[in-house]
Amino acid sequence: MRVTSIQLAMTDQPKEKNVEHALSLIDQAPTSDLILLPEIWPCGFFSFDRYKSDSETIDGPIVTDFKAVARQRKCHLFMGSMVECENGQFYNTSILFNPAGEIAARYRKIHLFGYQSEETAILKPGSDVVVADTPWGKSGLSTCYDLRFPELYRRMVDKGAAFFLVASAWPHVRLAAWQLFNRCRAHENLAFLISCNCAGANQGKKYAGHSMVVDPLGQVVAEGSEEETCVTAEIDPDQVNAIRQEFPALEDRRLT
């Protein structure tokens, strides 16, 4: 299967411009079975003053537009995340669409980031571990700071996950940690990890880029630069089961 992460370069511009830019990059992306976008790209993660004003409901214009894109491209589309509003509460919500343009899964970020960030003050954390059924296998959804919490990924494995999809707005100042956690979460769970991080800068904060595709042995199959780009890779989904059978480390777990 072919996967493509659209590593958007963030700038401080209106939501409508960011949506237009994201759609244009998807139009230029290679034909893929799965396309991914990063975290809170409609306004930019560090635009905390815009979270509420730029938020939308799950049936708002952005979701409607991207449902249509998934249908047109006949692919799974991990839209990354946006600020979702529901009943006066706000969430960092990622959405996975299937090729019919239906919502296959919705994940509300569990681990909100409070260090030099207002995310925890504005948003409500999610509580559900989300694993979606996809043609290539069960896929767990996660967002950025979640990468620092390995127990979440083990919970996803316990629900059958063989793939992890990660939307992120990871800052450049912690690039080394980003690269480490991408590889660790894949290797320790013998799973593919496909991440999409922001590039560019927002509110004076530079993003790390370096979206990655990591195989179940922790080897980097593809990795972006710090610039806006499409990170595309061909992967074999059957590799997960083959590796887990040959090296059944997950079966040797004793602490649950």
Explain how this protein is built:
- With 256 residues, the protein is an alpha/beta fold.
- The chain has a single domain (2-252), classed as Carbon-nitrogen hydrolase (Nitrilase/N-carbamoyl-D-aminoacid amidohydrolase).
- It is built from 6 helices and 15 strands.
- The protein has helices at residues 15-28, 61-73, 119-122, 150-158, 175-188, 238-246; strands spanning 2-7, 9-10, 34-36, 76-86, 89-97, 103-108, 131-134, 137-143, 163-168, 192-197, 199-202, 205-206, 212-214, 220-223, 229-234.
- The longest helix has 14 residues, at 15-28.
- The mean pLDDT is 97.
List the keywords.
single chain; alpha/beta; Nitrilase/N-carbamoyl-D-aminoacid amidohydrolase; 15 strands; about 25% helix
Terminal Cα separation, in Å?
33 Å
* Helix count, DSSP H or I runs of 4 or more residues: 6
Biggest beta-sheet profile: 6 strands, mixed
Portion in strands: 25-35%
Q: Helical residue percent?
A: 10-25%
**Structural class label:** alpha/beta
Total number of β-strand segments?
15
Global morphology: globular
What is the count of structural domains? 1
Radius of gyration: 17 Å
Q: Could you please say which CATH topology applies here?
A: Nitrilase/N-carbamoyl-D-aminoacid amidohydrolase
Mean pLDDT: 97
What is the assigned CATH homologous superfamily? Answer: Carbon-nitrogen hydrolase
Question: Which H/E pattern describes the elements?
Answer: EEHEHEEEHEEHEHEEEEEEH
Strand order of the largest sheet: 6-5-4-3-1-15
CATH architecture: 4-Layer Sandwich
CATH class: Alpha Beta
